[in-house]
Amino acid sequence: MRHSWAALILGAFLQTFLDIIIEPVALQGNRWFLGQIYGYHELGLDFGVPISNYVGWLLTSFVLVAAFQQIDRRVEEKAPYGIFAIPFRSLLGPILYISVLIFNWVISHSIGENLIALTGIFIFTLPILIVTILAVSRVNRYHEEELQEHLKDYPWSPLNKFKE
Asked: By the 8 A CB rule, do 10 and 18 touch?
């Protein structure tokens, strides 16, 4: 993941994809506790949000993920102080992502913007369904080469105990 173009591009697109739900709801901030903290000079095509907003998020996300990859490459080979295996740690990111989605769906529904909520549900139903099926069926198992690459990047990983 430290050198993966696929992870870089996917991370940038997932962040931008999340903003497709967040931005229209945040733009309605005067109708809920957020307040009207910003606006656009011209109304855009996506519930008042201009496409340039999403292009900006894509570029910003690309730079941020690339910076995080660069920082992560500089990590020492030994385990940093305080690192320990947290059960189901890999689920923390997806849980946060889904929580942000659910929060925005609830807010959009509560302020009467049911079309925004419904659009968001339709946009994310298929990706969530695919990820759930892959996780449950375990078809996303790693190959030996992928495990070795992971262990090279993260030598303190709990997966080292499975190494022969």
From this structure: no
pLDDT digits (tens, 9 = 90+) for 9-67: 988 998 998 898 889 898 888 888 887 877 788 888 788 889 899 999 999 999 999 99
Inform me whether the pLDDT recorded for 85 exceeds 70. no
Does residue 143 sit in helix, strand or coil? coil
The type of residue at 129 is L
| C-alpha–C-alpha distance, residues 154 and 77, integer Å | 7
Picking from 131, 132, 163, the residue whose alpha carbon sits closest to that of residue 149 is 163
Statement: residue 77 has pLDDT above 60: no
Q: How far apart are CA 88 and CA 150, in angstroms?
A: 17
Mean pLDDT of the chain: 82
- Residue environment code for 40-68, b if the CB has 16+ CB neighbours within 10 A, otherwise e: eeeebebbebbeebbeebbeebbeebeee
Residue that is written with structure tokens 């009467």 in the block: 112
How far apart (Å, rounded) are the C-alpha atoms in residues 132 and 129?
Answer: 5
From the list 52, 46, 54, 51, the residue with the least C-alpha distance to 24 is 46
Please indicate, yes or no, whether the overall pTM of this predicted structure exceeds 0.70.
no
